[in-house]
Amino acid sequence: MGKTTLLIIDDETVLLKNVAEMLTGVADNIVTCDNPFKAVEILKKGNVHCVICDIFMPGMNGVEVIKKAREMKNEVPFIFYTAHGHKDLMLEVAKYGAFDFIDKPNMDGLEHAVVQGLKVGVLQNSKVPGDDTNIRDYRKLLASLGDDSED
Amino acid sequence: MSTNFINISNSDDVKPFLLGISSNLLPEATKRVDANGLQVARSTILATLMHNLTLAYPERKSAGIISAFYGFLMAKNLDWVNSQTIDQIILAALLQDVGLGKVAEKIPGVPYVQLCKDHQAAFQSHPKEGLVLLQDIENVSERVRQIIYQHHEYCNGTGFPNGIIGTRIYPPAKILSLASGFVDELLNNPKERPANILKKFVSDREIVTRYDGDCVRSLIKLFMVEKK
């Protein structure tokens, strides 16, 4: 995997700092941003492989941030912190392709999610197998089932 | 259907649909599905939601349990899924159709293809209703709710409720989407062996292109006999 950059967006600066510290070493570069408008500018420049974003922020919420990224044809994996009471935002955010969801305040599973998100983020411009390639592959596998799957 | 959420894996409603799986993971699957089933049974709210679903659609409870097994087994073959995510997939599988219990009265009891547009729309709202019903319930994380919300999304964008494509579908939901779709085929053909259903399922281009390639490979591998 090449050099990886993680962007963390949260208006709560203490949490921002804590999460960045918690994830030291997981990504090569960690960029923190307490202003979602500035975060969109960072995303415009590209070269971010994974984003952690709070779902509820004043001025611009997490859904608007991912929406702006997708409008820029940026499909970087987004991991959202979530908390109870944001049902409408959670219904909306799924439309834009959220990679993972971490419940506040315990942040359970965050590191694993970031590691996986960075992997996907680095590979996002590589070619994925098309339907025909997949179907050829399935046929080979099915052939190896042979009659062993019968009684 | 007498399937209960305690010792669910011993049920005759489940066993025939796991026939031919060569995996030595079945005992672990049983343990994990039972543990999550117990969690549902112990929660008054979740048990009530499942009760409402079973009243309207008795077969959906078994479908959820069998999907939980397939979800577990497929997930075990995928290197990006960790133990925590596996339990979330299992719980989501068990609860995937709770939203149907809410919209049941709007839908006549006929096969989906025979439903009129309005009734189809009501049916297609069940993943969203599921997410809403499970909001603010202790022990149901946002991940579980999103797996349920997206369990009918297809990689080729023909799913619902949002019709999002594969790269935008929450990855664990791709596992449940396939498990759920395959289990529906099993339940529609109860006298056929699962491996034979799998061959037809995977050979149908229109069906198989709905699903994530790695998940399909993982499903096929469940039926491969381990050579000594």
Biggest sheet of chain B, in brief?
Answer: none
Portion in beta strands of chain B: under 5%
Q: How much is the average pLDDT of chain A?
A: 91
Under CATH, the topology of chain A is which? Rossmann fold
CA distance, first residue to last residue of chain A:
45 Å
- The order of strands across the largest sheet of chain A is 2-1-3-4-5
How are the SSEs ordered, and which strands pair?
The complex is a heterodimer of chains A (151) and B (228).
Chain A: E1 5-9, H1 13-22, E2 29-33, H2 36-45, E3 50-54, H3 62-71, E4 78-82, H4 87-93, E5 98-103, H5 110-123, H6 131-145
Parallel strand pairs in A: 1-2, 1-3, 3-4, 4-5
Helix pairs in contact in A: 2-3, 3-4
Chain B: H1 26-42, H2 44-56, H3 58-76, H4 83-95, H5 98-103, H6 117-124, H7 126-133, H8 142-149, H9 171-188, H10 194-203, H11 205-208, H12 213-221
Description:
- The complex is a heterodimer of chains A (151) and B (228).
- Chain A has 151 residues and is an alpha/beta fold.
- Chain A has one domain (5-145): Rossmann fold.
- Helix content of chain A is 44%, strand content 17%.
- Chain A has helices at residues 13-22, 36-45, 62-71, 87-93, 110-123, 131-145; strands at 5-9, 29-33, 50-54, 78-82, 98-103.
- In chain A, helix 2 (36-45) packs parallel to helix 3.
- Chain A is elongated, with a radius of gyration of 19 Å.
- Chain A starts with a strand and ends in a 6-residue tail after the last helix.
- Chain B is 58% helix and 0% strand.
- Chain B has a single domain (21-221), classed as Hypothetical protein af1432 (Orthogonal Bundle).
- Chain B has helices spanning 26-42, 44-56, 58-76, 83-95, 98-103, 117-124, 126-133, 142-149, 171-188, 194-203, 205-208, 213-221.
- The interface between A and B is large, with 37 and 42 residues.
